[in-house]
Every structure is written in structure tokens, then in C-alpha cells.
Design goal:
GO terms for molecular function: hydrolase activity; metal ion binding. By secondary structure, this protein is of the alpha+beta class. It contains 9 helices and 17 strands. The protein has a single domain, classed as Ribonuclease Z/Hydroxyacylglutathione hydrolase-like (Metallo-beta-lactamase, Chain A), CATH 3.60.15.10. The structure holds zinc ion. The site of zinc ion (ZN) has 6 residues, from loops.
Length: 303
């Protein structure tokens, strides 16, 4: 069981709920084909061990949920890979048996306590705990929650509307982690902007996927952006034109990343990506050379 003390911004409390943190088989040249292959070893002094393992030449994998308590509402941002899923073309996410729900309970939250589940997008590693296996059926893990899903992603990842190419890593994901929630009547699709309360609003931030979303937090002058996979690695802060190989629209992904990083730098916003190790969330500044630098890390226990 992993526990992680929260960070407080204004009246909002944010806790990192771990699903997995450890080795990954992925190399930088696979996940970030745009990146300079020499950059990773050349910057191992700060990338290793939080983000990169120089000894093996592979990336560090981190899967977690951001647990937000705001105005009495319990909110989960992204739900990892889930346990027991069949992922024939993404074996790294298949047949997990992690202590995610125990870690959530250690943060004081049972599945029944969750009011809102946010999927920033519908990739395999962001919707897994939307459902759990009950007998032979996938059922909603959070039976009292409303699940907020960007409609462009809901339409894009539905294999009936948009057949996926052979070998697609997102195979089965819509069927086992989205449709059971839809059938239970728990999904609210949204477009453009969706306000949750006076402190939190979802806005579209397309590029990584057509419906990728950013969650904005504003409480008593403290601000944050939950950016999902607009940032996979801090290398994309230093080099904002570096996409992951899973960015569906490369040009739009770069533009969205630059727009959000500039806003975070201008407005002193804490940035919460989906998969950062190390301090997990950070503030950024303009570099002065059309890119960005990491100013400081949030006060989370380092992973
Ligand atoms: Zn992801």
C-alpha cells in the first residue's frame, strides 16, 4: 500500500493515488521519436531515476490518479490501466493486479465515496479503473459517480463508429472500460467546456487525442492545470515540440502543449501531468528561447 500526503491549493486538496511506479520496457526513441536520442543519457543527472533509467536505457512508468477534494466533492482525474484487463496489443497494461483500490482507501476514499470521475481522454492507461470485474461482467467501479468524458473522444474511440486498425493498442478499451459505464447510465458527455463548480472547469485541449481535456483549478488565487498526456515527460517542457508516439494530431498536440505551458508560466499555475515520476507536478517558466524550464516541483513525496 502506498500513501502520499496531499498538496493544498486554496481550499482544494490534491492527493496522488498510485497505481504503478516502476520499470517500463519503453525506450525514449519509441515513446518520444521526436526527441534527441542523446538528450536522455546527457541529462541523466536529473532524469534518472524519476523519469528515465540510464542503466537500461528505458523510461520509468508511472500510473496514478489525481484525487481532488473540492467543496465537499470527491473527484478522480484519470483511472489508470485497471486490474485484469485483456490488452492483446498493449501487454504492458494487461492482467494487472495492483493495490490501486487499497491505495485509494488509504487516502480516505472508498469506491462508493467518489462523486465524479474525469477521463482526460480515452487511452488504455486513463480509463482502466472506470470498471472492475464482477463475475464475468465489467461493472462501474464507482457506482455513485458521474463519469465526465469528452464527447469527441467518446465518438473517436467507439470501434463501431471508427473501426480501429489491426494491432491497435486501445483494443477492448472502449468495450470493457467505457461501454459498461454508459450502459449503467453514469456517463455525462461534454463538449467545449464543462464547469464542475466555482473552483474547477474542464476545457477541450485537443491534439494528443481529438477530445483530450485539461482540468483548470482556481481557488483563492492558487491555480493548477491537470493536463493528462499533453505532457508525458518533463523533457516535453524543455522541448515542447517533442510529441509522444501516441499523439494523434502531431501539429495540434504541439500547439496545445505550447499554449498551456505558456499559460502555466504566465499565471504561476501548478501543472499536474498524467505520468510524471519525481515530484509528480511542477511549476514552469519561460526559458527565454521559445521553450520552458521547470521552476520547482510540488511538495509530493518523490517517486
Ligand atoms: Zn497516458
Amino acid at each position: 500500500m502506498v500513501t502520499c500526503p496531499p498538496v493544498v491549493l486554496g481550499d482544494v486538496e490534491i492527493t496522488r493515488v498510485q497505481e504503478y511506479a516502476g520499470p517500463s520496457p519503453a525506450t525514449p526513441s519509441f515513446l518520444f521519436p521526436d526527441s534527441d536520442p542523446g538528450y536522455w543519457d546527457g541529462n541523466a543527472s536529473w532524469l534518472d531515476p524519476g523519469f528515465y533509467d540510464a542503466a537500461s536505457g528505458t523510461l520509468r512508468s508511472v500510473l496514478h490518479t489525481w484525487l481532488i477534494r473540492s467543496q465537499g466533492t470527491v473527484i478522480l482525474v484519470d483511472t489508470g490501466a485497471g486490474n485484469g484487463k485483456e490488452r492483446p496489443y498493449a501487454p504492458v497494461y494487461a492482467h494487472h493486479n495492483t493495490a490501486y483500490l487499497e491505495n485509494l482507501r488509504a487516502a480516505g476514499v472508498t469506491p462508493e465515496d467518489v462523486d465524479i470521475v474525469i477521463n482526460t481522454h480515452l487511452h488504455v492507461d486513463h480509463v482502466g479503473w472506470n470498471t472492475r470485474l464482477a463475475g464475468r461482467d465489467w461493472v462501474p467501479t464507482f457506482p455513485n459517480a458521474r463519469y465526465l468524458i469528452p464527447e469527441p473522444d467518446f465518438l473517436y474511440w467507439d470501434p463501431i463508429r471508427m473501426p480501429r486498425p489491426p494491432g491497435d493498442g486501445n483494443q477492448n478499451v472502449f468495450e470493457d472500460s467505457v461501454l459498461p459505464v454508459r450502459r449503467a447510465g453514469l456517463i455525462d458527455l461534454w463538449n467545449g467546456e464543462h464547469r464542475i463548480n466555482s473552483e474547477l472547469v474542464l476545457q477541450e485541449a485537443p491534439g494528443h487525442t481529438p477530445g483530450s481535456a485539461v482540468l483548470r483549478l482556481d481557488s483563492k488565487g492558487a491555480g493548477a492545470l491537470f493536463v493528462g498526456d499533453i505532457l508525458h515527460s518533463p523533457v516535453q517542457i524543455i522541448s515542447p515540440d517533442v510529441n509522444s508516439c501516441f499523439c494523434e494530431d502531431p501539429a495540434m498536440a504541439r500547439a496545445t502543449r505550447r499554449r498551456l505551458l505558456a499559460e502555466a508560466a504566465d499565471r504561476d499555475l501548478l501543472v499536474f501531468p498524467g505520468h510524471f515520476g519525481g515530484g509528480s507536478a511542477c511549476r514552469v517558466d519561460h526559458s527565454g528561447t521559445d521553450a520552458f524550464v521547470i521552476r520547482d516541483w510540488a511538495d509530493f513525496a518523490r517517486i
